[in-house]
Write a structure and sequence with these properties.
Family: Belongs to the TamA family.
Mean pLDDT: 91
CATH architecture of the largest domain: Beta Barrel
Strand content: over 45%
Low-confidence stretches: 1-15
Subunit structure: Interacts with TamB to form the translocation and assembly module (TAM).
CATH class of the largest domain: Mainly Beta
Subcellular location: Cell outer membrane
Strand order of the largest sheet: 10-11-12-13-14-15-16-17-18-19-20-21-22-23-24-25
Largest sheet: 16 strands, antiparallel
Distance between the termini: 68 Å
Structural class: alpha+beta
Number of strands: 25
Shape: extended
Number of domains: 4
Keywords: Cell outer membrane, Membrane, Signal, Transmembrane, Transmembrane beta strand
CATH topology of the largest domain: Porin
Radius of gyration: 34 Å
Helix content: 10-25%
CATH superfamily of the largest domain: membrane protein fhac: a member of the omp85/tpsb transporter family
Protein name: Translocation and assembly module subunit TamA
Number of helices: 7
Length: about 575
């Protein structure tokens, strides 16, 4: 008896769920009808003529929204299940736009952005009426007006007329933008930095035409300095005078001392401990000091950087760096000291240019060579990084070029030119496919390699080089088979990633390249990996094989951080 009751209950429950099948139309029409009818499948309904009438009414609304006012709709239930319904729809002839009367007045009449908007979105005579596009145009006009400072904008005429019996529609939009407002005086409050220094960050001047995006640029520029813990940029609408909007910036100073700690691991350097001490601002001129300590099994370093901002504080500045590093890996043991004076400029298209003067002293052992050297190297570099899509971007590119020169004529221990370049690209196809490519190249000209310290020579192999080989194990060797480093470097990588689920990805890759002195000995690594888009950045685990070097075998690579 119990089994019978359960069977009857299950059958009744199955028949209480409404299922709809739409026939006779397809594409956008069918999709829109399905959206309008979705609420019926989510709620409890009762079979009958009232349900049929409600379904018909909603379907008619969905069709009218896309310009079809002459539809015919029939509802057919299944004989054995009154809640399994088929809606057979004949859309009929669409309503076509007969009249388009769109007029702009006020300052926007001569605004190229409004002209471009109408060119893209204004309905065309003879097109099928689409209520969503009509409402979208109205919203776009309002939004553009707000972004560009037409704060008094309004529709003097806003009418959409439909004559279903004639299959005709008449669009009439008259938009009066009024006067475009301009930026007024900018005032700062709560700051600990000189006002003249803050004024240099303004992307606009008093009297310039208002543009909301420039307020965002000001906010970003202030945030980039690191001087403030909170930033509020807003227009003072109560003090508007002669169509000029004053801007008020409320600031709160950042803490005087910030200490950051971090623990990480990679197969290249093993476990790593980092300790950073930052003083975001030392005085009212906005000078700052940063000290970084990094410890790992094979490398230990400490570096201090003093930053002096210039007129354009966020992007142009001097930086003085002092650093000491100790390395002990494979056939390399070195202790180096660096003193660097750098000048940074932000150029067009997000390029940074850096001119530098570096003094390097290095005491080293490289294979069978023990030596020390003092070098004075002026240099210049250009780099640009762009990305979109968060910590694991769907698109990104990075380019970096650097040239350093040394000459005995100015007291340097060797004469040479060192070139280094890096390039990387990330692209996506849909939501589930990513592609990552990297290229790394370098060359040393003029000088005998043996006179140069290990930090200037080239080595390949490791997590971010040629996987399948140990960290910096690809280079020329001496007669005893010890690594001595190369004069040239060229490596490349190609990787395909497929999203398994959520933030988890599978990867397949191949790396190729060499570090050499006279003739390259090309090496290739291939493998597969797992990627996790963690909150702190991509975490990579790779299983790789070196194909060309005897005994290289299998390598496990683990790394956390940017892919380019």
């Amino acid at each position: 008896m119990l089994c019978g009751l359960l069977a009857v209950s299950a059958q009744a429950w199955a028949q209480s769920a409404l299922t709809l099948n739409i026939t006779g139309i397809k594409g956008e029409l069918k999709d829109n009808v399905a959206i309008y009818l979705q609420k019926f499948t989510e709620d409890e309904v009762s079979a009958g003529t009232r349900l049929h009438a409600a379904l018909t009414q909603e379907a008619e609304k969905a069709l009218q929204a896309l310009g079809y006012y002459q539809s015919e709709i029939e509802v057919h239930p299944k004989p054995d299940n009154p809640l399994a319904l088929t809606l057979h729809i004949k859309a009929g002839k669409p309503v076509l736009i007969d009249t388009v009367d769109i007029q702009l007045s006020g300052d926007a009449a001569n605004d190229a952005d409004f002209a471009a908007l109408l060119q893209q979105q204004a309905p065309k005579r003879g097109a099928i009426l689409h209520h969503g596009q009509y409402e979208g145009l109205k919203s776009a006009l309002r939004n553009l007006a707000l972004r560009k400072g037409y704060f008094d904008a309004r529709f003097s005429l806003n009418r959409l007329e439909v004559a279903p019996e004639l299959n005709q529609a008449f669009v009439r939009l008259h938009f009066d933008s009024g006067v475009r407002y301009r930026f007024g005086e900018v005032t700062f409050s709560g700051q600990q930095i000189d006002s003249a220094r803050l004024q240099s960050l303004l992307p606009f001047a008093a009297g310039d035409a208002y543009l909301a995006s420039q307020l965002g640029e000001l906010n970003q520029a202030l945030a980039t300095t690191g001087w403030f813990s909170s930033i509020l940029v807003e227009g003072n609408t109560e003090q508007i005078s002669d169509f000029h909007l004053p801007v008020e910036v409320s600031l709160a100073p950042e803490r005087r001392n910030i200490i950051e700690t971090g623990i990480g691991y990679s197969t290249d350097v093993g476990a790593r401990l980092k300790l950073n001490w930052l003083k975001p601002w030392l005085n009212s001129a906005g000078h700052s000091l940063r000290t970084d300590l990094a410890l790992s099994e094979i490398e230990q370093s400490i570096e201090a950087a003093y930053k002096l901002p210039l007129q354009h504080s966020a992007t142009d500045y001097y930086q003085l760096q002092l650093g000491v590093r100790n390395r002990d890996t494979e056939d390399t043991a070195s202790r180096e000291s660096n003193l660097v004076l750098e000048r940074y400029w932000l150029l067009g298209n997000q390029w940074y240019r850096t001119a530098s003067l570096r003094w390097l002293y290095e005491d080293f052992v490289q294979a069978d060579q023990r030596d020390n050297i003092s070098l004075i190297m002026p240099g210049i570099s250009y780099n640009r990084s762009r990305q979109a899509g968060g910590a694991m971007p769907h698109s990104a590119d990075r380019l970096a070029l650097r040239v350093e020169v040394s000459d005995e004529a100015w007291g340097s221990g060797a004469s040479f030119v060192r070139l280094r370049g890096r390039a990387g690209w990330i692209g996506s196809a849909g939501d589930n496919h990513r592609f990552v490519t990297r290229l790394d190249a370098g060359a040393i000209l003029m000088e005998a390699l043996r006179k140069l310290p290990p930090s200037l020579r080239f080595f390949a192999g490791g997590d971010n080089s040629i996987r399948g080989f140990g960290y910096e194990t690809i280079s020329p060797t001496n007669e005893q088979g010890e690594l001595i480093g190369g004069r040239y470097l060229l490596t490349g990588s190609a990787e395909y990633q497929y999203r398994l689920r959520g933030n988890w990805w599978l990867a397949a890759f191949t790396d190729y390249g060499s570090a050499w002195d006279d003739n390259p000995d090309w090496q290739q690594g291939v493998g597969v990996g797992v990627r996790w888009a963690s909150p702190v950045g991509p975490i990579r685990l790779d299983f790789a094989f070196g194909l060309d070097q005897p005994g290289s075998g299998f390598q496990l690579h683990f790394a956390l951080g940017p892919e380019l």
